[in-house]
Design a protein that fits this description.
The protein is α/β, with parallel strands linked by helices. The chain has 15 helices and 18 strands. The strands form three sheets. The chain has a ten-stranded mixed sheet with strand order 7-17-14-13-12-8-11-10-9-18.
């Protein structure tokens, strides 16, 4: 099927992530025409949109055949413009980057819209669709006809897939607890000064709970059979002093979203989960999830898109399992690393899913949890920390 891919947004997301994978998306015939839309040009061919112009009007003027619009612009525009497109551009399919909603009203409107418009809206979530792909393989959650099985641009196994697929339960057993550390302090990933104001202003969906919380919770929620559904118990938030000083040049301090958060949750199966997310933390980037179970431990190294198990001596599919010192599977990295994220979302908008679950449904569940986390009020004065403070010392 032909598809005209319309990318809305010319900011950091476009420059660092989506622009680099257009070639591989096109080579796999995921789309056959492309238009970049923004308030200003990124230096290349761009359809310029005025700030007050309805997005449906822009799409209509492009006169695209089978348009799919990716909303990768400021946070507070995601849900409203998705709903406007649904109403006024009936042939358009829509992909929304996180956050998908910045308050409960938007969440309920979006939930209803997705229920009423199946196969028209998809939610993109990079950790679920790319970084955590090896974990999805181990959990046996990759669909039989998935591009992950056939496309070497997506997944590059170190060990043969059959050695790992479906082994999570027998290697880990019943989960006892899970810890997610997504904390960054190095390079451009460890700061937000180069990104738009909606990443900072809490009124616009800013703060690290909305920015990184999706990545922390979505892969866990996909493991519904093992972990169970989640509920927020407690939230502790903190603000980097240097980050606040910079943000206060543009907005009032009371509206500056948190730069670090520690979210404690409990699953319906009694599994405690702690998710630590933030920037300006430590001197390096830590992107990992650990699940400890009755039989062993799985470590998901998101930075390397790979997994390993701590237990040894098992066999899986009648093959000896490698020792814990060996990484069992990794995703291909490089300039096209964001390709599986956009392909998963585009297929989802067509009603096809590379996993044995609907990634958009999982992403929406994560969004609901994060808005509940934001409802938790801070007691007393805000906790402050200096740039580079290790995250385990912020609240000590």
């Amino acid at each position: 099927m032909s598809r005209h891919f319309i990318h809305v947004g010319t900011g950091d997301y476009w420059r660092r992530l989506s622009s680099s994978c257009l070639g591989v998306l096109g080579s796999h015939q995921v789309f056959n025409a492309f238009t970049l839309v923004g308030l200003e040009s990124d230096g290349g061919p761009t359809t310029i949109r005025s700030p007050e112009q309805p997005l449906s009007e822009v799409v209509d003027k492009i006169d695209a055949e089978n348009p799919t619009v990716l909303l990768a612009h400021p946070n507070h525009l995601h849900a409203p413009e998705a709903l406007e497109l649904l109403e006024n551009s009936p042939s358009t399919k829509i992909i929304i980057e996180k956050p998908y909603a910045i308050d409960k009203r938007e969440l309920e409107d979006l939930t209803q819209a997705m229920t009423n418009n199946r196969n028209r809206i998809a939610l993109a979530e990079s950790f679920l669709a790319s970084y955590a792909a090896p974990l999805m393989v181990a959990a046996g959650l990759v669909a039989e006809d998935s591009f992950y099985r056939t496309d070497q641009d997506s997944l590059q196994p170190i060990a043969h897939m059959s050695m790992v697929e479906g082994c999570l339960e027998e290697r880990v057993g019943k989960p006892l607890y899970a810890l997610v550390n997504l904390v960054q302090g190095k390079g451009s990933d460890g700061s937000v000064e180069h990104r738009n104001l909606s990443l900072v202003d809490s009124r616009l969906g800013g703060g690290m709970i909305q920015d990184m919380g999706h990545h922390a919770l979505a892969p866990l929620l996909a493991l519904d059979g093992g972990i169970g559904d989640l509920e927020v118990i407690d939230v502790a938030r903190a603000w980097c002093q240097e980050y606040v000083t910079n943000a206060c040049q543009k907005i009032s301090g009371e509206h500056v979203g948190e730069s670090y958060a520690q979210i404690d949750l409990i699953s319906t199966k009694g599994v405690p989960v702690r998710a630590c997310v933030g920037k300006y933390v430590g001197e390096r980037n830590q992107l990992a999830m650990t699940i400890v179970g009755t039989k062993g431990t799985v470590l998901c190294d998101y930075s390397g898109r790979r997994i390993a198990f701590s237990t040894i001596g098992y066999e899986h599919n009648d093959e000896p399992f490698p020792s814990s010192a060996e990484w069992l599977m990794e995703c291909r990295t490089g300039q096209d690393a964001y390709y599986p994220v956009l392909r998963t979302a585009m297929e989802g908008a067509d009603g096809k899913h590379p996993f044995k679950f609907d990634a958009s449904v999982v992403a929406l569940r994560a969004q609901r949890l994060l808005l509940r986390a934001l409802e938790k009020k801070d007691d007393g004065e805000r906790t402050k920390y200096q740039k580079g403070t290790p995250h385990d010392q912020i609240f000590s």
